[in-house]
Amino acid sequence: MEIIKYPDRSQWKGITERPYSDNRAVLDTVASVLEEVRSGGDAALITLAARFDGVALQSLAVTSGEMAAAEDLLAPELKEAIDAAYRNIRVFHAAQEKAEEAVETLPGVRCWRKSIGIERVGLYVPGGTAPLFSTVLMLGVPAQLAGCSIVVLCTPPMKDGSVHPAILYAARLCGISLVYKSGGAGAVAAMAYGTESIAAVHKIFGPGNQYVTAAKQLVQQSGVAIDMPAGPSEVCVIADESANAAFVAADLLSQAEHGPDSQVLLLTDSAPLLEGVQQELRRQLELLPRASVAGKALEKSRSVLVRDLDEALALANAYAAEHLILQCKDAETLAGRVINAGSVFIGPYSPESVGDYASGTNHTLPTNGFARAYSGVSLDSFVKKVSFQQLTRAGLESIAGTVTTMAEAEGLQAHAEAVRVRLGSSK
């Protein structure tokens, strides 16, 4: 990791920059894949599976028999872990269901909002050699609670053409029956445009590599919504002299192992802690199966020695991390001053990995600084907030002058007449 000591504010921009990748070539490749699927449908997806995944598929849909058999293929301890995570995620997201009360803005003028589940949603779940069944829960649970009518799940098949049983088991828990063996940009295209087998959806969710991310960005131009801009995983840790260096290093490595383009940032006001973390990183890195991946990520990451925790928090807010971990005295007080972060982990016993899997919060979070303006996935991500209003004649009479004056000032006479004609005062 690059070590920076006592930077002045002019250096903050460089500290908060993410690793840059020119994705123009990726966009060109993805655009051709999107067109291939738009015109070729299921046949194109089967061709893409052979080309990119080395899998010869006879069909795309996972059968009901495959879904039912998944439970028996899981180790009991993994099944129990998925069940426990499902319960916690459901409890947290169910608490977000709040009915709004109608408001009378004037006598006879009643307004309210209603949450309505998006009819058709598509979930992309990375699979293959590293099936992210936790993502099924993170996306499937809020879709289930929101009451989305059609939930399509696409995931790359394994080399034998099957889908990992943990993904199928998690999908069944979430009430998802439309599961398809399709990955990468092709899967995004299928959910955006529809094929003979796969229904087109209104909004696409889920993480993926740079090709999946580019595909989601491009299909937006066709009117399909996406959950949020995505990028490589990241974490920022604020730690002081009270922090355990081994804990801090473990948290940094848990993000670094995601991929070589991941980034981690340590902010501390303690020189001994900074040095202790560097030693722990070297020790723990050697023990990881994905040491080479994590090592490459650390090469693009930074440890910063700051003057105090106020400066650390200001720098963290400027960075706007996907995950922010607070391992310091009075961590709860500091958490109350956080402005920009996807998800915050408070205290020494709140590792980021619990949020990735089972604490209940959602792990689909904004990266690349988008936490300045975007929220992570929640129940609200799967619903539309539709507003309603109902007026009595007396209510319309009380507001008529306001509406007609404003409409005529904007030069929109028909707007004014729509009020007057109801009150018998049309010009």
From TrEMBL:
<feature type="binding site">
    <location>
        <position position="258"/>
    </location>
    <ligand>
        <name>substrate</name>
    </ligand>
</feature>
<feature type="binding site">
    <location>
        <position position="415"/>
    </location>
    <ligand>
        <name>Zn(2+)</name>
    </ligand>
</feature>
<dbReference type="InterPro" id="IPR016161">
    <property type="entry name" value="Ald_DH/histidinol_DH"/>
</dbReference>
<protein>
    <recommendedName>
        <fullName>Histidinol dehydrogenase</fullName>
        <ecNumber>1.1.1.23</ecNumber>
    </recommendedName>
</protein>
<feature type="active site" description="Proton acceptor">
    <location>
        <position position="323"/>
    </location>
</feature>
<dbReference type="GO" id="GO:0051287">
    <property type="term" value="F:NAD binding"/>
</dbReference>
<feature type="active site" description="Proton acceptor">
    <location>
        <position position="322"/>
    </location>
</feature>
<keyword id="KW-0560">Oxidoreductase</keyword>
<feature type="binding site">
    <location>
        <position position="255"/>
    </location>
    <ligand>
        <name>substrate</name>
    </ligand>
</feature>
<keyword id="KW-0479">Metal-binding</keyword>
<dbReference type="InterPro" id="IPR022695">
    <property type="entry name" value="Histidinol_DH_monofunct"/>
</dbReference>
<feature type="binding site">
    <location>
        <position position="356"/>
    </location>
    <ligand>
        <name>substrate</name>
    </ligand>
</feature>
<dbReference type="GO" id="GO:0005829">
    <property type="term" value="C:cytosol"/>
</dbReference>
<feature type="binding site">
    <location>
        <position position="323"/>
    </location>
    <ligand>
        <name>substrate</name>
    </ligand>
</feature>
<dbReference type="GO" id="GO:0004399">
    <property type="term" value="F:histidinol dehydrogenase activity"/>
</dbReference>
<dbReference type="Pfam" id="PF00815">
    <property type="entry name" value="Histidinol_dh"/>
</dbReference>
<feature type="binding site">
    <location>
        <position position="415"/>
    </location>
    <ligand>
        <name>substrate</name>
    </ligand>
</feature>
<dbReference type="GO" id="GO:0008270">
    <property type="term" value="F:zinc ion binding"/>
</dbReference>
<feature type="binding site">
    <location>
        <position position="255"/>
    </location>
    <ligand>
        <name>Zn(2+)</name>
    </ligand>
</feature>
<feature type="binding site">
    <location>
        <position position="356"/>
    </location>
    <ligand>
        <name>Zn(2+)</name>
    </ligand>
</feature>
<keyword id="KW-0520">NAD</keyword>
<keyword id="KW-0862">Zinc</keyword>
<dbReference type="GO" id="GO:0000105">
    <property type="term" value="P:L-histidine biosynthetic process"/>
</dbReference>
<feature type="binding site">
    <location>
        <position position="233"/>
    </location>
    <ligand>
        <name>substrate</name>
    </ligand>
</feature>
<keyword id="KW-0028">Amino-acid biosynthesis</keyword>
<keyword id="KW-0368">Histidine biosynthesis</keyword>
<feature type="binding site">
    <location>
        <position position="258"/>
    </location>
    <ligand>
        <name>Zn(2+)</name>
    </ligand>
</feature>
<comment type="similarity">
    <text>Belongs to the histidinol dehydrogenase family.</text>
</comment>
<comment type="function">
    <text>Catalyzes the sequential NAD-dependent oxidations of L-histidinol to L-histidinaldehyde and then to L-histidine.</text>
</comment>
<comment type="pathway">
    <text>Amino-acid biosynthesis; L-histidine biosynthesis; L-histidine from 5-phospho-alpha-D-ribose 1-diphosphate: step 9/9.</text>
</comment>
<dbReference type="InterPro" id="IPR012131">
    <property type="entry name" value="Hstdl_DH"/>
</dbReference>
<feature type="binding site">
    <location>
        <position position="410"/>
    </location>
    <ligand>
        <name>substrate</name>
    </ligand>
</feature>
<dbReference type="InterPro" id="IPR001692">
    <property type="entry name" value="Histidinol_DH_CS"/>
</dbReference>
